[in-house]
Amino acid sequence: MSESSTPQRECYPNTRWSLLTRAAGGDDAVAMKALDELARIYQRPVYLSVVARGYPREDAEDHTQSFLAAFIHAGSFQRADPAQGRLRCYLSRALSNFLNKARRTERRAPPQTQVQDWSASDPNAPDLEFDRCWARELFSKATHRLAQEHSHTAAAKHRFAALLPLLPATPAPGLITQAAATLEMTESAVRKATSDLRHRLRALLEAEVRETVTPAEFDSELAYLIELLQTRTPPGSHEF
Question: Helices marked H in the chain — which ranges?
């Protein structure tokens, strides 16, 4: 693909809601394949959210695997309904319920395990941590897709690598001059190329968000996730 060409639609995977529809279908083989794909997609945000709640990483890995396995075998993916709201919220509630139930059944944690007691501070904190992990994961996927679009030739990879540090809204001093020298471009051309990359990154992020919400929810969900990304990231936050 040339650097100026438009990515084809087939490079995008099935939407998350369409995967849920397939998972709820009557064909067992199709349903299991869809469930496996869903588990793979959401393993990282679920794991990061569990870690953010204070669980040691080893325990977080165990809880992530147990949650996804239970979620699949209990038919929770199949019961998800796009008409009932954001997929992010559905998974966040399910994870909170799962961890609360796990803590009640365990009763006593090992001495080396220190789990954050959210009830003593902000009861909304676990959901907020999940949302932050969700936002970072969608942004990571969008950035990965952007890199893939510029990986088809050595020249494209070189150009993308030089421009990538400039994507933050306020790049570090001297980076534009450095990139211009590296790419043998004028600074004006570098700024234009960077602006184009930012716009494409936003489009890819929007595509990721659209896969998890209904059209009516898209604008508010996008604004909320961008706010989470910007408030979580110090100077050098990305401009969308």
Answer: 16-23, 28-52, 57-73, 76-79, 87-106, 125-149, 154-163, 175-183, 187-210, 218-232
Phi, psi dihedral angles at 221 (to 5 degrees): -65, -45
Distance CA 238, CA 13 (A): 25
**HSE, side-chain direction, 13 A CA sphere, residue 101:** 10
Express each pLDDT in 194-238 by its tens digit: 999 999 999 999 998 988 888 888 999 999 999 998 875 444 445
Give, in order, the Cα–Cα distances in Å from 129 to each of 95, 177, 203, 228: 12, 38, 25, 10
Domains of the chain and any CATH numbers: 11-116 (1.10.1740), 123-240 (no CATH)
pTM over 0.85: no
The token duo for 26 is 């009557």
**Interval 71-84: pLDDT, tens:** 766 666 555 555 55
Whole-angstrom Cα distance, residue 238 to residue 58?
Answer: 32
pLDDT at 144: 94
Only one residue has tokens 């890819």, namely: 204
